[in-house]
Every structure is written in structure tokens, then in C-alpha cells.
Design a protein that fits this description.
Elements lengths: L10 H24 L9 H10 L12 E2 L2 H10 L6 E6 L5 H7 L4 E6 L2 H11 L5 E5 L3 E3 L2 E2 L1 H11 L6 E7 L5 H8 L8 E7 H8 L9 H9 E9 L4 E2 L6 E8 L1 H5 L4 H13 L5 H8 L6 H10 L13 H19 L12
Parallel strand pairs: 2-3, 2-7, 3-4, 7-8
Antiparallel strand pairs: 1-10, 5-6, 8-11, 9-11
Helix pairs in contact: 1-5, 3-4, 9-11, 9-14, 11-12, 11-14, 13-14
This protein binds S-adenosylmethionine (SAM).
Length: 350
């Protein structure tokens, strides 16, 4: 087999995709001749017919659950409040239905698709839109970083004018939604907002408050830098094929003034992850382990006491603001004892 070929796809499927592409090209030429704009509504019957034509099935591994309710597709676009100044990034082009809608409102849409057959099918759908840039690409370099091709494409578009605003809007592939949201808050280019469809369970974690079962490092990290709200909860029925769980559209609005209040954001990121790593343990023992080799037990106790935290305090009881203050106290103490201006935590959790 050709090394570049995905083992998931048989040769007949590849041939069928090519034949379908040729047929679509002929249809396009006919349409152009008749001067008719193309409108494809992403319905269950349309999608299943398109997949059947090329002999493929949606790929679970890539989280291929297509949104088939036009009102909800429109709702994602509306939530992003797109303007002609916007450079909007979509991760997961799918068949291009949200892409096409957003292209009507935004200055530029950069859309990224990992699956080469979907990329090809979407190219046919979107080819008449000259403000759409398609990337055939895994959007992630690894679980901690977005791919540089994606970041560079965004930077290039932002460089076109000083008024350009970067936004993320997508029906995200569920298996990579957490790293995408989390990484973008640490990236070279941070979206002004993220309006995305994710699993309801992840949405609950993003908006969770201290003391609740869903409250964790992700809640603190994202709420520390952004306002987060659930716009709409959606049942599996609005997707094809249907996922097993509920979903939600969320809106995450970046607050640059909050970002500016962190002297060292990387340290905070590591601190929060480490402090929530052993949820059931008392904060004291988690902190002792996290700063092992940098601070001794009396130094850890002194910091906790100064913040009014006794030996039975747990991380999950603290608000984001309290954790930010505590983090800064630890950071300054580590900087003092190590003599390093920007110290790195000894143990950063999993
Ligand atoms: N935008 C379409 C819609 O709303 O119906 C499709 C959304 S579907 C939930 C997610 C899409 O993301 C799929 O087309 C899948 O192939 C693509 N995808 C999955 N993982 C990806 C990755 N790491 N990078 C880029 N695209 C990815």
C-alpha cells in the first residue's frame, strides 16, 4: 500500500471519491454556465447520500458527528458575532456547512480538516467562496500545542490589517476539544472569543464553580482568563451520526486585562494542574510534593497559613482568585530561594 494512504480507506473508496470529484467538477461547470449559486443544506439525507456515493462511513476516531440542524449551525455563527474584520478559525471543516455560513459574515475563514476525503468533499462545496482558506491538517502538533501551520495561517491573515480580530468558531471534534481550548489560551495568538460545540460534560467542567464535582484545573485555567457561558444544550438528535452524549454550544470570551494580572502565566498553568492532580488529598501534602526540592515543609506551611489555609484545606474549595493569590505567594518564595526570576515548578502533575 502507498505509505500516504490511510489504512481505514479501501482502494474502491478512493476510486469512488475521485469519480465523485470528477462528477462534481462537471456539475460545477454546468452550474457556472447556468449562473446559479450552489446551496447545499446539510441534512441527514444529504450527508448519508454523499457518504454512500463515495462508499465511506463517518470516522468515529475523528469525532465525525455532523450538525444537521441549520438553526444550530447558524447559532454557532451568531454566537461568534462575526464581522468583516474577523479572521475566524474553524477546526473540523467536515462537509463545510458552518464554514460556508461563516464565510458570508467574516472577513476570512480558515478551516482545518484532518480527513483527506472530507477535505476533498468540502473543497467542492466551498470552492466558490474566495474568503475561505482550507488546510488539510491535524490542527494539533501534540496535546500541548496547536500546529504551527494553523498558527501561521492565522498570523498571516491578522497581518493584513490592524483591525483584524481572531476568533475560533467550530463544531469541535470531541476527542480533541479540551487541548484545543486549553492550548489556544497559551498560544502566540489568542482568540478574542471561542464559540464552539463540545460535549456537555466538558461544558459543565468549563463553567464549574468551587466545591462542585466538575470544578477542576480546566475550570480555573479558563475562567482565570475568560468569561465562559453555556449558550445551548443539545441532544444527540441534532447530529448525524448521533453521539452517545449530550452536547453544548459554549462561548468563551477572552479578557486580556485578566491575563495581564498574571506575572507568570506558565507558572499559574503548571500550579493549577499540579494542585488539582490529586483531588482527594489535602492541599498541604499536594503542595509539599509539587514543590519538593524547591521548598521544605515549613516553608509550604508558612505560605498556606499566611493565606488562611489550614492543614485540611483542599484545592477544590478555593476560587480562581484565591488560587491565583496562593500561586503568586508560592512563585515569589520559589524565586527567592532559588534565586531564579522566572522559576519553573519542580513537579507539574500529570
Ligand atoms: N464542521 C462540521 C459540522 O459542523 O458538521 C464537522 C464537525 S465534526 C464534529 C468534527 C470534524 O473535525 C470532522 O470532520 C473531523 O474529521 C475533523 N477533525 C477531527 N480531528 C481533527 C484534528 N485533530 N484536526 C483537524 N480536524 C479534525
Amino acid at each position: 500500500m502507498d505509505e500516504t494512504q490511510d489504512p481505514d480507506y479501501p482502494a474502491e473508496a478512493i476510486k469512488a471519491v475521485e469519480e465523485a470529484a470528477a462528477a462534481a467538477a462537471a456539475a460545477r461547470a454546468a452550474r457556472k454556465a447556468a449562473n446559479q449559486p450552489k446551496v447545499n443544506r446539510q441534512t441527514v439525507s444529504y450527508l448519508s447520500r454523499r457518504f454512500e456515493e463515495v462508499g465511506l462511513n463517518p470516522n468515529k476516531r475523528h469525532g465525525q458527528n455532523f450538525l444537521v440542524d441549520l438553526n444550530l449551525i447558524q447559532m454557532i455563527s451568531n454566537t461568534a458575532k462575526l464581522t468583516p474584520n474577523d479572521v475566524v478559525l474553524e477546526i473540523g471543516t467536515g462537509m463545510g456547512s458552518l464554514t460556508g455560513l461563516m464565510a458570508l459574515e467574516a472577513g476570512t475563514v480558515i478551516t482545518v480538516e484532518i480527513d483527506e476525503y472530507l477535505y476533498q468533499m468540502a473543497s467542492e462545496e466551498l470552492e466558490e467562496l474566495d474568503n475561505v482558506i482550507m488546510l488539510k491538517q491535524d490542527a494539533l502538533k501534540n496535546k500541548n500545542r496547536m500546529h504551527e501551520n494553523v498558527i501561521n495561517a492565522v498570523k498571516e491573515q491578522l497581518a493584513i490589517g490592524p483591525d483584524r480580530v481572531f476568533k475560533l468558531a467550530a463544531n469541535l471534534p470531541y476527542n480533541v476539544a479540551t487541548p484545543i481550548i486549553s492550548n489556544f489560551l497559551r498560544s502566540e495568538v489568542v482568540p478574542a472569543s471561542m464559540s464552539v460545540t463540545i460535549q456537555k460534560e466538558l461544558a459543565d467542567r468549563l463553567v464549574a464553580k468551587p466545591g462542585s464535582k466538575d470544578y477542576g484545573s480546566l475550570s480555573v485555567w479558563v475562567q482565570g482568563l475568560c468569561d465562559v457561558s453555556i449558550v445551548r444544550v443539545m441532544s444527540p438528535k441534532v447530529f448525524w451520526p448521533r453521539p452517545k452524549v449530550d452536547s453544548a454550544i459554549i462561548h468563551i470570551e477572552h479578557r486580556p486585562e485578566r491575563r495581564a494580572s498574571f506575572p507568570d502565566l506558565d507558572f499559574f498553568y503548571a500550579f493549577v494542574r499540579a494542585m488539582f492532580f490529586h483531588r482527594r488529598k489535602f492541599m498541604r501534602s499536594v503542595a509539599v510534593a509539587a514543590f519538593k526540592g524547591q521548598l521544605d515543609k515549613p516553608q509550604v506551611d508558612e505560605i498556606l497559613q499566611a493565606e488562611g489555609l489550614g492543614p485540611t484545606a483542599r484545592t477544590e474549595e478555593l476560587s480562581g482568585v484565591e488560587l491565583q493569590k496562593l500561586c503568586e505567594a508560592f512563585r515569589q518564595q520559589v524565586a527567592k530561594v532559588t534565586g531564579i526570576d522566572r522559576p519553573v515548578m519542580a513537579n507539574q502533575g500529570g
